[in-house]
Each structure stands twice: as C-alpha cells, then as structure tokens.
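Hey all, quick one. A colleague (J.T.) asked me to put the beta-D-fructofuranose job into the tracker so the inputs and the structure tokens live in one place instead of scattered across chat threads. No bug as far as I know, just bookkeeping. Sequence used:
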Amino acid sequence: VAQNEPHRPQFHFSPNKHWMNDPNGMVYYKGTYHLFFQHYPDGTTWGPMHWGHATSADLVHWTEQPIALYPDSLGYIFSGSVVVDKDNTSGLGKNGVSPLVAIFTHHNPDLEKQKSDKYQYQSLAYSLDEGKTWKKYENNPVLPNPGITDFRDPKVRWYEPQQKWIMSLATKDRITFYSSPNLKNWTKESEFGQDAGSHGGVWECPDLFPLTANGKTAWVLLVSINPGGPNEGSATQYFIGDFDGKTFKPYSKETKWIDYGTDNYAGVTIANTNERTLFLGWMSNWLYGEKVPTSPWRSAMTVPRELGLTQIKKDWFLTSVPVKELNVLKGESFSLKKENIKGGRPLTSKLKNETGLFKLDVSAQNTNDFSIVLANDRGNEVIIGYDKASNVYYIDRTHSGQTNFREGFGKRYTAPRLSADQIISLTVIVDVASVELFADNGLTVMTGIFFPEQPMSQLYIKSAKGIFIENLLYTKLKPSVKQ
Ligand code: FRU
C-alpha cells in the first residue's frame, strides 16, 4: 500500500484518478473482459459523465485504458451496456468485422435546465477494433424520450428464441422492455414493476437474464433503487420469474436484495460469458460516495461474483459468490479445525497491510453470537458477525476509523439469515478499505467499505459465550494492483 494512498484497494478495480460510479458495458470478447464505467475525468465528485475503460484477461488484474466515450452535443454519457453483434444485425460492422455495440443513455443538461421532461434518450456507439476505440452512431438517438423524466440505463441482450434484441430500461418507477431486430429501431413490449418491489427511490440500472438450476430456467430481473435500500441509500433488488420475449412475470412481487450491505450499487452482468453469469457493482453508495476520504480517486468496484439460482421451500433466490479467478491471488494460509473458542482469539499475529479471504463454518444449532474482527493499534475495528437471537448477520463499522465525513456512516448494518442449513458457512473477502461477506453459499451477501486511520493489522475471532469451530481457513490474498 502506497503511503500517500492508504485506502487504495489492492485487488478491487479503482480508477487511477478521479470520480467513478456505475459499471457500464461489461462484456467478454476475444479473451478480454471489458469494464467501462461512469467517470468524471476532471474531478473526484460526479460531473459530466464519460465512459472510462479498463480491461482484464482474468477479472482480477485490470489495466485502465483511454476514455471510451466523451460527452457530445446530445449530452453526457450515462449508464448502458455493450453487446457483441456477431451477425451484424445493426449493419455497423464492416468488411466482415462484427461490431461491439454500446447502447447508452444520453443525458442532456441543457434540456434538463429548461425543465423539459425529455432530457434522457438512448443512443449507440460502436467499435470495430475489439473495444479499443468507439464511434458514435450518426443517427442518435435511437430511442427518443416519450416524456418520462427518468428514462435510462439500457441493458440489452439477444433473445435467441425470437431472434431479437431485448432492452430493459429504467423508466422512473418501473422497467420498460423494448425489442429490436437491429439495435436501431425499438418497439415497446411491456412494463413491469409499478405494483411490485420496493419504491423508496427511483428505479435505475436494470438487467434481465436467464439462470438455470436443477434443470429449471428462470429469469432474473435486477433493479437498482436510490434511495430505499435495506440499510439506507442505494441498493439493488431482484425479482425471479418467467420471460417470454414480451413480458416478465415474477413468481413473487416481493423485493429481494442481491446485497444487503451499504456498498454494492448499479451492478449488472457481464455480456457474452457463455454458461457463467458474472456480476459486479459499484462499491459505494450515493449517500456518501462523493465524500469518502480518498484521493486522487473516488470509489472502487466489488469483486466480480458468479450468480446462481437456488430454491428454499417454494421460493427462488439468487446467490452470489466471489469468482474462482480470485484464487490466483492466494498466499499463505492459517487454519483451525474442530475447536472451541471462548472470548477472543487472535488469528494471526501482525497482518499489517494484509488482505485476505476468510472461510468459517460453525454449527448453526449450537452456536452463540460470534464475530470476526479486523482491528489496528489505533482502536479502529470492523466487526463482521452473526447475532443468534435475531438470526442476522451484520457489519459494524461504528469504530472503523474515519466515519464523520457523513453522519450515519459509522453504524451497524444487518442482513437476515435466509438459509436453514445446519452449518453457518461464511466467506469474507477483506481488502484494505472494504469487506464482502458471502453467507450460506451467497444467499445473504453484505458489502461494506471503511476507512481506518492506519492499516488494519489484527484479526480476531470472538465469541463471549463461546462457539465450536468446524472449520476456519484464513488465506492471504496478494495485491493485483501494481505496487
Ligand atoms: C446510477 C445512475 C444511473 C445513471 C448514472 C449517472 O448510479 O444514477 O441511473 O445512468 O448513475 O452517472
């Protein structure tokens, strides 16, 4: 960790400099993962949006690339997606080269100032050199605004059974689905959500994709909302149901959360990854994203996660677990098996600047409250725990270091345990300024950022009344960023 950048994530993507929010246009193409992102290259707060760009061969080591899309006369470049148009349905390909096509929102600040309700509309850009350089389509926008103030964040995928593109678009308090044969002409198919889910804030950044479990395919709809998250501010809810090329029909209208933590927003899946479904989100929150004490950059992405589907009784849930690619970072490890722990037990003497992966299994029935504690000599601590009486997991950053850049940052945040398994099984990923908890094989997930006054250097497992550890494994994770 460089001294002047004490909170620089060591294996999470963060921009070298300046402001970042939503991941955009994530696509895997010819051996490269592309991550575009909402970016303001002239400051560390939100401003006229560009698409920043980073690439990776393995989802772990990222290289920042030149800015992909700049604002133009139609507006700022807001969130959107990229597709591989392999059959050149758009006609934007040339000489047998299939185009990568970006479908994004143009946000027009002049129209916004004039109090028009039509200042967001959808446009295209394309690349004929595998994502290196991008050209805007000359007849933008391709989907004009019908008079809806929030009309943005198109996520497009190919719908094979009907040979057409489907766009999921956030339209204020619902998602509107459009279809197109060529990415240029769009027809409205249906709407979803006015009477479903959480409506504590505006709906943003949708994503609709199929997942298969035990031979059954269901469609998942992700919808980010801001504010209205389960632990305040921005968060991402999901629905599971059927999709027939026209209409999304959820099995339940109730909200579920992909991540109960405060710091996973606007996440969507990576296009073109074949049988795997991979996801990552912006590891921050609109409540304080512009105020976090980092310089000269602001914010990072979560680790990439692999999504799955699981059933509990009759109800379907989404699971997310860290991608296996992170294994390349594994270093020394430390383990305990079949051991009683009462009070506090240090797990490693001095971790200094360490980042790692923690796995813990305890018997659900016999356990008492317990926690994993990250701490330093300044008395800063981040506590990741399980509270038996209320059957919740939590991340407590009350005494995590710098918290007063925003009132309410230093709090204890909870998430329900949804699993009824006999074993409580936790995977915890710790970077210098973030923790990601994946409980019960990714059924309950919590992501939280923190800013200690000096690096965390101690790791404990604690239980006042005592717990029996089935298995515990702490593995150091080496940095993936250049030191
Ligand atoms: C979500 C969001 C999107 C929008 C983008 C602007 O965080 O508000 O709806 O496209 O950020 O930067």
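Adding what we noticed when we looked at it: Residues 380 and 399 are 5 Å apart (CA to CA). The helical segments are 109-113.
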